[in-house]
Amino acid sequence: MLASPLAAQTRERGFTHGIASGEPSSDGMLLWTRFVAEQDTSLAWEVTDPSTGRVVAEGSTPASPQRDWCAKAEVSGLAPGTWYYYRFTAPDGSQSDIGRTRTLPQGPTARWRMAVFSCSNIGFGWFNAYRHAAEADAFDMVAHLGDYIYEYGLGTYPSREQFEPGRVLTPETEIVSLADYRLRHADYRRDPDLQRLTQLYPMIMVWDDHESANDSWEDGAQNHQPDTEGPWDVRKAAAIRAYREWLPVSDAPYKRYEIGDLATLFALDTRLLGRDEQFDFGALIGAETSPDRIARAFAAFRDGDYVDPARQLLGAEQEAWLFDGLQSSRRAGKTWQVLAQQVIMGKLKTPTGLLDSLPADVPDYVRQRILLGAAAAREELPLNMDAWDGYPAARDRVLAAAREADADLVVLSGDSHNGWGFNLDHAGERAGVEFAGHSVTSPGYESAPPTLPPERLAQALREANPQLAWADTSRRGYMALELTPERASSEYRFIGNVRDKASDVVATQRLTTLAGQRKITVA
Which residues are registered as beta bridge partners of 481? Predict the structure, then answer.
């Protein structure tokens, strides 16, 4: 079923993995392709105005084995808010596909539309969400909020039984080295739906943990064992290098994008730059089984280390940059301040009554997980320490800065595989809203607990979490975000079945916030 780790790449020659564009600005963007040759090769590129057919920008860029044959070109001098075509040409006359891209608008902007994706594990199924967004032909830009690839080896996540026939995973082992990460990126870039999506729209990207290793932070990861996999810094550098080679992204760890007078979009790094290590409930209580002792341990933690004001998720430098950016965006008269980032910001704890809804035959490991989550919730501790919930002081600083700037904050999040809408508040005041997106393929809470109806789980979560306006815990797809001067909305689009290559969107749900209200309406 699976290809040899090296067979595909050693046979490849010429333009092998399509084209892409990213890092849009009001006068340019970054173009990407991959061209494999016998030696370093200079590729010519050109950008064309589709209304006239005239070449408006051109140049050359190298493709070399030092960058795994990936080539990038920085384009400038274009008109704002305009669609363009582009392509690459090799010395032998062969040409890449023709791509389409768009510059960001300047000045008055009536509408901006983005398709927003996250968590696309190739082994769990087909990228139907990418295909649907490409066929819709209704967006100005694409955003991917992380977990664009997954690092696991065959049989880990998904299991061998769950692995979708027809999908390819190279190498079959967990990826650790630079060569490994390059091969895995190549697998993903061969997907025709991903290629078509990136051919049609410019992209902005932020990495989450699986582009490096599960639950990564600045100095390590849950899925990294230094004794057998070497120093974390070496692995992290390899993951970052391959990511920057294989995607139309700059080397900047965080960046802002100005969308006319409508919005400033801040692309953040909540993973590898300044994040402190996650707290772990299991490590906190060890082998303790007494409910009273667990409750006391949780309470002491809640009032101590958990609220340590020194803990960081963004790092001090990125925080200062963001806070200054929120102020300057509002001073410039922008309506929306949008955070494109990885993990859920809203407060989310385990419903304490969830055990009452579980069937008698639920697996013990599921019951124990919910028991631990409920014990934490009774002490006002969250469900997931790997999200902003695990860094409450850092979250408070961001929301306080948004309030101080009078920002109309819209937070976009991925990571959880499920759909969420949160009303964010700080010190009793509305601070913004969060549209947290469901995954392209990775399974959500429908698999844990698998016997609890999704509607009942979503209801229990809403009842237990005052900030939570809406949730869907069982369906895959993507968000269609639309910004206008009057409102920001996210239409959650649900794919019928990611294991059926032909499956399409079968349902939608729209969440909206009006300018100045900082509150979600569920339509």
Answer: 114, 490
pLDDT digits (tens, 9 = 90+) for 43-53: 999 999 999 99
Instruction: Report the distance separating Cα 254 and Cα 98, nearest Å.
Output: 29
**CA–CA separation, 289 and 291 (whole Å):** 6
0.70 exceeded by pTM: yes
CB atoms within 10 A of CB 453: 12
Q: Residues 57-91: pLDDT tens digits?
A: 999 999 999 999 999 999 999 999 999 999 999 99
CA distances, 125 to each of 137, 169, 174, 189, 246 (Å) = 23, 12, 19, 15, 22
Query: Tens digits of per-residue pLDDT, 472-522?
Result: 999 999 999 999 999 999 999 999 999 999 999 999 999 999 999 999 999
- Given a contact cutoff of 8 angstroms between Cβ atoms, the answer to whether 465 and 457 are in contact is no
Task: For residue 521, give both structure tokens.
Answer: 């309406």
Q: Before 158, cis peptide (omega within 30)?
A: yes
């809408």: which residue's tokens? 421
| Angstrom distances, CA of residue 520 to CA of 362, 434, 438 | 35, 9, 17
β-pairing verdict for 54-63 and 14-22:
unpaired
Q: Which residues pair with 492 in a beta bridge?
A: 479, 509
HEC readout, 401-447: HHHHHCCCEEEEECCCCCEEEEEEEECCEEEEEEEECCCCCCCCHHH
Rounded CA-CA distance 181/167 in Å is 17
Task: Indicate if the pLDDT at residue 419 is higher than 80.
Answer: yes
Contacts for 59-64: CB closer than 8 Å, 24+ residues apart: 63/33, 63/34, 63/35, 63/36, 63/37, 64/40
Identity of residue 221: A
